[in-house]
Amino acid sequence: MAHQFFFNPYILDNLPAPETGFDVVQDISEPLLRMYVTSRGVKTFFVRKRVHGRDKRIIIGSYPDMDIETARSQVATVLLDAKKTIPVRRKKLSFREFWDIYLKNQVRRCEDSETKLVRAVNMHLNSLFDKNICDITRPDVESVIKKIEGKAIAARMQEVLNSIFKYAIEQGYAKENPVAEINKIVQKRRVSPLTEESVARLLDAIKSQENESMRDAFLMLIYSFLSKQKVFTMRWEELDFNHYLWRDWPLPDVAVVLLENMPQYGEWVFMGRCRTHLADPRTAWRNVVNAAGMPDLRMDDVHKFFMRRLVWAADKEDLRVNMNSLLEKFGIQ
Asked: pTM above the 0.70 mark?
């Protein structure tokens, strides 16, 4: 059962984020109004209702972009719209045309993530583009999925197709979901070897590196809470040392100290070959993880490890304080 209380800005602003997954809270003033709180601190208003015989969660909006009173006023309208009969569209749309509609109306991602999704769909699902979405059958989908190399991306494309066809049915452009009866692809998910106990070993291995540039770049993977792609492509002009920011991302104290002590020349913070930024230092990283006793550790495992443990906050300074606290927990200060 969801935790119930009267929604007000002070309480919602200070709701603690769960360590994993999400929590659900419910408004006493408008009992149908609920909120997801994810482990990253993202807060989303929604309502839950049986619509056409199915339990459905309908997203209303994100907090604080949408205020509480607006969310309460939207509940009745959202539920009324959900009960409306699904329209029957006489006009047929190709998969390509409907994908554009789905991308515009249903996909809410950051720019980098959306670009990766579009690239994957264009690469793996292009054989469906010229077919009418209402005419695509289960064998068509199975044929596309079987041609994808790698279980992880095949499973992801199956999930995307399932979501697309559900939306097509809601909009009246398809009558059936050809993905619904296809067995889900079973994946053996990789487990990162990085644990709270092994962080110290990784730090010692990084600090023992003779190459100063590599050492600083790998330390920044830990200190900045950023992915390797963002760390390696940092520009000096993007750093604001007065406000402890890289672009709009707050930087913990240790990250700022590390950057201030580095020689500032050229365009890039971490220089690679041919006067461009550092790209993919596999050999140096392999030496580090072998020294730390974790040969299977990947660079982005570090980013994911710390982001999962970070208590999210919408305010940049509060988020920076949380970063400092988490790093101090691991003896980094």
From this structure: no
